[in-house]
What we know:
mainly alpha; 5 helices; 67% helix; globular
Amino acid sequence: MNYFEILYDTFKPFLDGEKKPLNTLEVGNIWLYAGMGQNTLRLEEVWVNTIQDNELKEKVNNVFLVHKEIVNELNEFLLKESVSLPKPSAPKPIDDYHAIPEGAKSTDQEIANLLSYNLLVAMTHGMRILTESIRADIGFMLSKFLLKHLSVAIPLKQLMVERNWIQEAPPYINNAK
């Protein structure tokens, strides 16, 4: 089952025809999402420099590639709609983590939890854009992004459980009977 095809088939009847101009809410939300994505790419580049666990490094690289695709698609969309792009910061060079002092780098557990949180923020903000947008092409685009985020968030969470890195709340026990 190809979920992107199902998604496309769902939105297809609404994608044809003349598109209304973007409204101010759509522009602001998409512009912010693109800017957040660009900054997230820089953070993930820094993390790649400090990760020691090879499986986590692979997961971060997968997330980085997904975020890069999303940011590129958002930038293309904004330019097509004649919206100026958020100003990106310069890419970070890939280096050896041994060259970074211990106190200046995050642990693998910290990176995994921050990445998980960033994915949560991206999905939450993406869902907000999806529900607030009027145009079907925006809904389709954000739905694709949510599926892409899920495709990397679930394997990351599995790794975090395996490594005992996940931040877990204590069990709730209701003693009031």
